[in-house]
Amino acid sequence: MAKAVIYARYSSNKQSEQSIDGQLRDCHSYAKAQGHIIIAEYIDRARSGKGQVLGFR
């Protein structure tokens, strides 16, 4: 089994926390179907990517 990390992000006022939840669900489903093990999730909530440290869970 391959190890994988999920990077979920939204960057505009038109998206919401639900967008992150949906991305995580889709990624976990895909990983399971492919036989991958998720070892970490990085969440980036509506911030510019420039100079930011990502949330990690």
Describe the structure.
- With 57 residues, the chain is an alpha+beta fold.
- The protein has a three-stranded mixed beta sheet with strand order 1-2-3, covered by helices on one side.
- It has one helix and three strands.
- The longest helix has 18 residues.
- It has one domain.
What is the topological layout?
Elements: E1 3-10, H1 17-34, E2 37-45, E3 55-56
Parallel strand pairs: 1-2
Antiparallel strand pairs: 2-3
Short description:
With 57 residues, the chain is α+β, with helices and mostly antiparallel strands.
Supply database-style keywords.
three-stranded mixed β-sheet, alpha+beta, 57 residues
State the distance separating the first and last CA atoms.
21 Å
Q: Compute the number of structural domains.
A: 1
* Overall morphology: elongated
Mean pLDDT: 82
Number of H- or I-type helical stretches: 1
Please bin the fraction of helical residues: 25-40%
What is the strand tally?
Answer: 3
Radius of gyration: 12 Å
Quaternary organization? single chain
Largest sheet: 3 strands, mixed
Pattern of helices and strands = EHEE
In percent, how much strand structure appears in the residues?
A: 25-35%
